[in-house]
Amino acid sequence: MNEPRAAAPAARPSAVGTWIDHHLYSLVASLGRVFRKPWAALLTIAVMAMALALPLGLWLVLGNLERLAGNIERSREISVFLRQDVDSARARQLADELRARGNVADVTHIPPEQGLASLREDDTLAGIIDAVGDENPLPHALLVLPAGDELMVAESLRQLPEAELVQHDAQWRQRLDTWLRFGGRVAWVLAALFGLGALLVVGNTVRLDIQSRREEIGVLQLLGATDGFIRRPFLYLGAWYGLAAGAMAVALLAAAAGALRGPLAELAASYGSRFALGGIDGPWTLAVLGGATALGWLGANLVTGHFLRQTRPTET
Question: Keyword set for this entry (predicted)?
Answer without folding.
Answer: Cell cycle, Cell division, Cell inner membrane, Cell membrane, Membrane, Transmembrane, Transmembrane helix
